Every structure is written in C-alpha cells, then in structure tokens.
Batch of 2 targets.
Target 1
Amino acid sequence: RAKKQGGNQYSFQSFVGLTNDRERMEMANDLSRALERNELCLYYQPQYCVEEGRIIGAEALIRWQHPERGLVSPVVFIPLAEEMGLITAIGEWVLRTACTQNRKWQMAGLPPIKIAVNLSPRQLQQDSFVHIISTILLETKLDPCYLDLEITENIDMFETDLVLEKLREIKAHGVHLSLDDFGVGYSSLSYLNQFPIDKVKIDRSFIQKIRSGHAQAPIVSAIIAMSKNMQVRVLAEGVESEEQLRFLMEQQCDEVQGFLYSKPLPVDQLEKLLVEKLTGLRKD
Ligand code: C2E
Ligand code: MG
Ligand code: MG
Ligand code: MG
C-alpha cells in the first residue's frame, strides 16, 4: 500500500507496475472512466470460522477489467485512485455493490454471511461518510451486523479524533469494524487501543513465516493471545499451508482466510459455495 510521507507526497510504491509517466497518465485517464464503463467488479474471498469449520464471511476485493491490459490488481490502481481523488466514488460503489450482493444472497435463502469491505483513509475523511453508510444500508435493506468494514492504520494522525467519532457512529448502527494488515505498520497497537475494533486481521506476512521453529510464530501467538485478552476476534490472513492452519488451530485463532481454502472468487462461484451449504474446512 502507498504510505503517506508527510505533506501530500507518495512514495513510488504507489506506482508499482506502472513503468513510466506516460503509462501512468494513460492508466489514470482510463481509471477515471472505469466506473461508468462498468469495468470494475468485485471478487469475494471466503472467511472461515476455525472452530465450526464453515464459511462465515467473505471479503470483497475489487478488480479492474481493463479493455487492453486485462485484469489490473488493486495494488496498482487503488493508490492511483486515491491520488486522483476517485477513491470516494469507487469506494461508495464497492460498498453499495457488496451490500446489495449480500442482501441478494440472504433473500435467496442462502446461509447468512458477513461481507467485509476495505476502506481507504480518504473515505473516512469524507464529512458525509456516516451518511453514505446509513443510506446504503437503508437502500439495500442489509442488516448492519452483516457488514464488516476493514480499516488500515494509514489514517492521518491529525484526524484521528474526527475519524474516531465517525467510527463510533457507524458502530452504533451495528456495523462491525476490523483492523486490516495488523502488525505491519508503526502504530497497530495504538490503533487497536483507540478505535472500537471488533476484529484484528493478522497480516499475511506473519502467517507466511509460520514454519516449524521459525521466529515469527511467537508473534502470531502473541497477537492471538492479546486479541483474546481484549475480547476482539482474530483472523489470520493469507493462510496457505496445512502447517500454518495447524498452528493457528492450536493457538485458537478464531477465523482464517487464504489460498488454502479459496482464492478470491467471482460472484457465481462464491454463491456456489453458499448453495452447497458448505460444511467442514475445505481446500480449493
Ligand atoms: P487486503 O485487504 O489485505 O486483502 C487481502 C489480499 O491478500 C488480497 O489481495 C487477496 O487476494 C490476497 N490473499 C488472500 N489470501 C492469500 C493467500 O493465501 N496468499 C497470498 N499470497 N495472498 C492472499 P488483492 O485482492 O490483490 O488486494 C490487495 C489489496 O488491495 C487489499 O489488501 C486491499 O488493501 C486493497 N483493496 C482491494 N479491494 C479494495 C477495495 O474495494 N477498496 C480499497 N480501498 N482497497 C481495496
Ligand atoms: Mg482487507
Ligand atoms: Mg488492506
Ligand atoms: Mg490485509
């Protein structure tokens, strides 16, 4: 993710995959039309409850089907959308699409799951953000307890009070809050301490290092233990191997998400999982 470096400068990380200025400008131009041209879509990655071994949620992950380039990663175009001021419109589209989809599944009688939506700091800075959320919930008739908002810690520190107020209001509606990419930033602990968080998502860089005897495993167990002490749920991101899963089970991690179970899926494939009324942990 692009990190803000004081002022409004962004590091070159945000231009990953874009080789030169011309390419970047072309991409920016194309992105400004992507919404109206219906080139954006959501994939859904299942989230599993470890204890019950069943799907309890899905994270909405945006994709851009570029007419010439094919599928573009959000790692490339989300930072661009943030810099271009397009992220609020795109973010609102993501929220509305994800909530509409989840309500559709529930109306079809499928087992209810939570839909997790990633938020950009810019969205939380919008004055109208709380209003946008409540409008979307009203429009889609989705019960707020089935919406889970994922925030990261790159919120401007000067605005934490304002953001905190908005998050409290949103929570008062019954929406859930998750802290994404936990452990990689500078201030994970202070965010956890300040914000009304329901769930911690351990960043996949820690999970990937779980191998017998590897020094990262104690960090994962410590995050799990801390979450339990603070009475927040804890999810491990990027679970790819049986060995990682075994370790996470031993440590009584609440939820898991990763390629071991499933990659992010197009709508119809996630729906199939729900229709199969999937029970038992499963590898895809
Ligand atoms: P994230 O929110 O941390 O999402 C998890 C990322 O890890 C996803 O990448 C997912 O495909 C990937 N992943 C899941 N399981 C595994 C695994 O087992 N192994 C590996 N190697 N990767 C795994 P994706 O879809 O490319 O998204 C990247 C990031 O882009 C997201 O990270 C999120 O920060 C951002 N993003 C995606 N969709 C949206 C959106 O709608 N709005 C905003 N603001 N950001 C988004
Ligand atoms: Mg996320
Ligand atoms: Mg993230
Ligand atoms: Mg993450």
Note: DSSP finds eleven helices and nine strands in the chain.
Target 2
Amino acid sequence: VKGGYDHFMLKEIYEQPNAIKDTYRGRLLVKEGIIRMAGIDDNLDRFLNANRIIVVACGTSWHAGLVSEYIFEDLARIPVEVEYASEFRYRNPVITNKDVVIAISQSGETADTLAAIKLAKQHGAFVFGVCNVVGSSIAREADAGAYTHAGPEIGVASTKAFTTQITVLTLIALKLAKANGNISTSNYQYHLQELELIPEKVKKALESDKHILEVAKMYKDAKNCLYLGRGYNFPVALEGALKLKEISYIHAEGYPAAEMKHGPIALIDEQMPVFVIATKKGHYEKVVSNVQEIKARKGKIIGIVTEGDVDVKNLADHVIEVPDTLEALSPLLTTIPLQLLSYHIAVLLDKNVDQPRNLAKSVTVE
Ligand code: F6R
C-alpha cells in the first residue's frame, strides 16, 4: 500500500510531481495559451464582478489560501481576504452577494469550513470549492468548484494536497488575470510555461533528500525552531513550522522575515535553528540582511535557496537548494525540502509520522 515507502507521508511527498501534473492536466494548455476550467468559465461574471474574494480554510489549506492571496492580488489585481473558517463563521462577517468565497479543503469535510460556506451562501455570496475528495460535503455544498487531483492523501500531515491546492489556485488566478486584462499576454504565457515545468523541478528538489536527512540529524534535538520567509514564501514558512510541530512535536513558529525584529529575534541564540526561505527573486537582498541579523546573534541558519546561490550560502550553516522558477510559483518548490525535513526529524525521533498523536485526518467537529 505504501508503494515501497516506509510511510504514507513519504510516499505522498514523492507523489507530488505526478499529483501536480494530474491537477493541471487538461486545464493548462500552454501551446494554445488557454486555462480550461469549467467551474470558472461557467461563472466568469461572478468572478470578474466580485468586490473581493474571501478564502476560507483551516490548517494547511489555510496556508494554501495565503499563498493564493499573493497570486490573486499580484497578478489578477483582485482584493483577497484569507480567513480561518472557525473565526469567520462566528464573527458576524460582512458578506454580500458581490463576494466570491473560495473554500479550500483536502477532505471536503472540515466542519468549520463547511459551516463558513453555508453562512456565506445565506448572505448571497458565490461559493467556489477547491477540494480533493470527490463528492465530499464541501464539494457538494459549493456553487461550483475545481478538484485537486492529488489522489488519496492518507498521512495525517498534509503534503501533496497543499501543493495541488496551490496549483489549482494559481490556475484560477492566471485565468482571471487574463480575463480581466491585468496580466500582459507575454507574462501570462511565461507563467503557463513555467507552471508546466514545475513537476520536473519538484523532482529535482526531491533529489536533495539525502542531504536533508543529514541536516535533520543535526537539528532533531532542537526544542524550538523558527521559520522565516517573505512575500509568496511567508505562508511556506508557516506551513514548514506546522509540519514540524504536528509530526515531530517540536515547537516551531513561522514568521514573515521582517517581523523578526518586532519580537522573535529575542529568542535567537546558539540553540535556535532558523530555517530561512531565501529564493533569488523574492526580496532576496532583504532576506539576506535578516540572515545577517540571525548570524550576529549566533542562531543556526538553514537556508532554502535557489540553485547556485552565493550570498546566503556564505552566511548559513547549511543550505538546501531548489530549482529557479518564477516568484509566484516558488512555494511549490520551497515547500518540498521543509516537508522532507519534518519527515526525517519525526522518523529520527521515532514518532508516529502517519498518525501523530491528538490529530485526525479530517476534522468533522468544530
Ligand atoms: C496539516 C493538516 C491540517 C489540515 C486541516 C484542514 O497537515 O492536515 O491542518 O490541513 O485540518 O483540513 P482540510 O484541508 O481537509 O479541510
């Protein structure tokens, strides 16, 4: 069942090149310059006339929502709010019939997310579901939707669901950016081409696995870890920290790199591993100066960098390389080493990787 892998989580991490390909297959038509998604085409007016998009989700799916906020605003110029479903539903939120609500859920059964979309529908919002499980409650309750085609995700820690959610949301953002004229034809085409290359690049990123295991051995006994990223990679920092917490039970926090000086920098000493996502295109120089600040306080630095990086490599204790891509697509690559790192640390600590304590695969109670 585990296809020769020791755990479902590892199998699912390795399935990502194919899962992403399965998710864009038939939708991403690079030569034609078309993104084909019936759920969007059939409701294009709702999207194009929307005052804003409200994304509701929980956990890892919420992190995918945060990534999409950058893409929707940056490329399609549509205002986006990303909400924890549990907060949204009880906040007496302002929702109108000009809002589009996107609900993201791997299982399609998360109680809070389901309740949030029921509330949004009562207020006349148009609800679009991004689910992995076909025929699930959220998929059925939504007005329209697009499935991720990740295949069954068994490991409790979400991996391929996350990258395929980002894939679907990227397709939607690009499609809307084209439809509302906020992206140039050449930039649109460039994103399409680069998205098609992502599965091969994920494969490449997976090749660092042995090196990541060595890094994991060095930090497995840490009591706390910090994850930093900026822009598109800020949500990846949150997701990296969540993955470590949930399967290795090590306390970890994700932060936007620039927020460090507003508090978390006080935590940094020689005991503190800091995982810094510092890819070439996303505010690179600024992240490098954050890395210098960590080094000055003797923190241990593990950089997630673009292939061929020099500046972070010179400062960091370790670097893990990922292939170069467009900034908007970089979360699909930078996530990979952080998943592997959490996996290896949890295995080294002899934790139950696929079924961590206190957690359930689908949270059907609030
Ligand atoms: C993290 C994880 C959870 C889920 C969350 C939402 O690895 O598995 O945080 O992401 O419970 O679940 P779905 O996406 O099924 O709504």
Note: The chain is about 45% helix and 15% strand.
